[in-house]
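Chain and conformation:
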Amino acid sequence: MQLRPRLSQKQSEVVDVMKGKGEIKSYLALGCPHIPFHNKKIMQGIFDLMDTYRFDGLILGGDFIDMASLSSYEKGRVNRTGITLEEEYDQANEILSIFDSKLPKKAKKVYMFGNHENRYWRWLSDVDNSKYGDLLNPTKALNLEKRGYSVYEDYKNDQYKLGSLHIVHGDYWNIHVARKMILVWKRNMLFWHTHRVQLHREGDYCGYNSGFLGDINSPAFDYASASMKSAWGNAFSIIYLDGRRHYVNIINCVGNEFIYNGVRYGG
């Protein structure tokens, strides 16, 4: 099953009429890019993919922005990344604007908070910081509602559902997390958080651990040991929805690039 190539408006109208109610929709699902510490070559490849194929929606599954300056690891220390929160927001807004330019006007857009966006709430819980109100809120700073995103700020409890597929950022970290997710939730789960790429299926339920899109060599990830990072993998997912039935393709990225439909992207 392949994505639909971009067509002229007239061609698209003909295709949509021919498909009728049985149209298969496609969604791009990205998680854990940790902007501005994302893998820029892979992200450019995703932009190029969006130039070639039309997606009906975009799901950003958390940790879209790193928010390193609000990390508890940085409290009382000199900023080791050298990047301010304002600069993080600026770069994230640039990428969101590129997504906006490449999606159809009526595309479904979802932004889910991850544990890194949640750093804002933890930072705000400090009585001194609470005086600033929602000044630094990612939803506000990234203009998400103005951009047309449905925003889910409670990463530990929120879910987004596409047919029979439930999408969360994720909160478990064990090595066999894809299996654990379906055993705990007893449903089909797409998630990120661990930076690993896994798929585990038992009967009708499947857990999809969809990797991450960060630059593993960035100093932002120096908190992780070499052995921990050796288990990480760059990836993203394409979801097809046919009525209530879902199909998830995890697109593995190797050496800063990926291949879709015989074409190399990124690199």
The first helix runs from residue 9 to 19. The two ends are 25 Å apart (CA to CA).
